[in-house]
Amino acid sequence: MTDADPAPPLPSQIPSSPSSPPRPIIHPKSVAAAISSLPGNTDAFLQRLQKCISTPAGTDAILLLVCYASKLLSQVLASASIQTLHARARQVVALALSFPPGKEGSMAGANAGVSVLLAPASASGLPAKLMGLSLRLKALSGMLSDVRAFGRLWGLLGMYFWAKKLVLAKRSADYKPPKTMDSLVGHASLASCIAFQAMENVAYLGAKNVLPVSPQRQASLYCWSSRFWALYVGLDLGRLMRELLDRRATRQERRVARAKAASENMDPAAAAEAGRAMEEEEKEWLSQWKRTFLRQCAWAPITVHYSKEKGLMSDAMVGLLGSVPGMLSVGALWKEAGKAV
């Protein structure tokens, strides 16, 4: 066929092989029957999942986990693909060196090496498949990161109400002035979050050509926003340590007060019940504190990594550390959603 010849018409549908059985027709009734026959635990799972994604915070937590987990898995698959290629290359070199020197031996070694290198690749294509899946997971991670950045564009509204709450608290009649250090940490945390969010918003909108921001300026804004994020994480870690020390001191005081009340006029059964309630409350508080502390410990190196233009860690390490806050947040959401179902 020449270029001038018309192309043959395309078939209206792909013909089926005579040896293959006809594709079964799926009726609506069979679909409904299949759905109704699903086990009850499937409905419970979907209900809990729907509860998790029904709020912006829950959706962001799931996106966070998938984003960093896909980044980690992408790097693992890419490394596995490269290691497979390196192993084949070592096989080629070892096989080529096993032949005797000389022209005929060199040619035989080269031909055998090429056959070893290419034959398995054409048969399975494992390295190419791993690399292809790695690139898709990397694209997924980048897309979810972009979605989360878009969702944070309205983060300044929440910080406005955070600031308003601090101002209104000082005007209330039952206001108790916090310690100087606690007040400084609270105001510094708010200021660092505002600076982080404002700079990230400008850089993000500049990257989307909404604002006239040069690429160099965008990179600088992203670095500085991450530095303010790192400042907030450091302040929050300090606040958490201070809360733990204060809680331990308060717990000891409450135990002494409970023992004194029990020895004076409280019923032993009531005292035991109050003790169990206090221990349960303490256990719940400590569990929440540990989750928050571990989350910020995982974020700390990531904030430092992004505060440098070229970064400090590999993508695999970033994905591993970033998956920790995601798992903690999703785990807490999943547990909370189970209570509501």
Sketch the major β-sheet.
none
Mean pLDDT: 80
Secondary structure: helix percent: over 70%
Note the total helix count.
10
Structural class: mainly alpha
Radius of gyration: 31 Å
The total beta strand count reads 0
Q: Any idea what the shape is?
A: extended
> Termini, distance in Å?
66 Å
Strand content: under 5%
SSE string, helix = H, strand = E? HHHHHHHHHH
Low-confidence stretches: 1-20
Structural overview:
The structure is a single chain. The protein is mostly helical. The protein has 10 helices and no strands. Helix 7 packs antiparallel against helix 8. The termini are far apart. Mean pLDDT is 80; it is low at 1-20.
SSE inventory with pairings:
Blueprint: H1 28-36, H2 40-52, H3 56-97, H4 103-124, H5 126-151, H6 155-171, H7 180-207, H8 215-264, H9 268-306, H10 315-340
Helix pairs in contact: 2-10, 3-4, 3-5, 3-10, 6-7, 7-8, 8-9, 9-10
